[in-house]
Amino acid sequence: MLSDRLRELKNSLPSGVNLLAVSKGQPAFLIRSLAEKGQLDFGESRLQEALLKMDELKDIDMLRWHFIGRLQSNKVRSVVRYFEFIHSVDSLSLAERISRISAEEERSPKVLLQVKLREDNNKVGFSSNVLCKEWSTLKQLANLQIVGLMTISPLGISQEDKQALFIDCRDLADELGLKECSMGMSNDWQLALRAGSTWLRLGSALFGPRLDPRQLFDRDITKST
Ligand SMILES: *Cc1c(COP(=O)(O)O)cnc(C)c1O
User: Fold this and answer.
1) How many domains does the chain have?
2) Which residues contact 128 (CB under 8 A, 6 or more apart)?
3) Distance from the CA of 202 to the center of ligand 1, in angstroms?
4) Which atom of ligand 1 is nearest to 187's Cα?
5) Would you say residue 118 lies in a domain?
6) Considering the entire predicted model, what is its pTM?
7) N or C end: fewer C-beta atoms under 10 angstroms in the chain?
């Protein structure tokens, strides 16, 4: 059962390591049942889907929402309004936009910079060179709190290479004085944990298989996004 899986996962995490329950593709009632067991951090990657669920769950005011998906510039304002964490800030220009809009909205989201430490055509993110070059500018952005780095391992690399990648991400965060490392998903979270992840982003290992967004609601929300 879902609550047993939550308990097992939580019991295997040392203190200081957080579980981000990735609830994309999951209905609001499952989020509610985890919230009742004390899980308060939820990750979503599609804005429209997330907003509908937030509305269904607005009676639970302790929930903390994390945006983990590709963030298009026209969605920044809504994400800043409704999410406390953004794990997927992948360029200086996006960070600047988030900071400017956060000032207008009187918000100050916690941000993780998405890094790409290995060649991966399917993924975005700062290379370590670009990040180091832009770091002093990023640090000065007034309305966002940069708390860590986020990474996603490329498909099809070996366990050893994944382990090395996660260690590189942890080392880079340490060099920059950042506490948080958002790394590890259902199929590789043990490796990420060993490397010093502080946010494990777990979807299917916790909830089971995802639904297509149009199965979640009684209308097709994909048309309006
Ligand atoms: C969907 C998603 C996850 C969770 O994936 P699982 O393999 O189901 O654990 C984690 N991180 C990001 C960025 C995602 O988009």
Assistant:
1) 1
2) 115, 117, 168, 172
3) 6
4) 7
5) yes
6) 0.95
7) N
